[in-house]
Amino acid sequence: MRGNAPGYGVYHTPIANLLNRLAQNRALDITGRPFRSLLSVLNTGRPIIVWTTIDYTARVPFITWQSPTGRVRATWQEHAVLLVGYNARDVYVNNPLTGTRQAIPRKTFENSYVAMGRQAVTVTSLAPHSAPKRA
């Protein structure tokens, strides 16, 4: 997981499925959307899990193979961060690898987002759902 040895990653669908189980079906898989859509989600106050590369570089080597469910395209440079804000120049991410908040140039981050297949997951609401009332 730290790039010292080969490891495994996970993409958007299993994360959205897990989030639905943990957050009362409030996951919203926004994979494939243009980068400006992510900024619109941030404007609502919701953070977004975004797949990028470990150093936010768009040019990384990919490998592909055929799985029972279809073609898989992957890189050893895969990374995911929590996108939490932006301004005219930068985006802000919480990076689980470093445990810090980082400013990344917007265009650099957008290019790595595109390179990793525009994968992103958020939630429909940050407000907790109330439990159904029992009769």
Automatic annotation (TrEMBL):
Record InterPro entries: Peptidase_C39-like
Superkingdom of the organism of origin: Bacteria
Residue span, Peptidase C39-like domain: 4-96
Name of the protein in question: Peptidase C39-like domain-containing protein
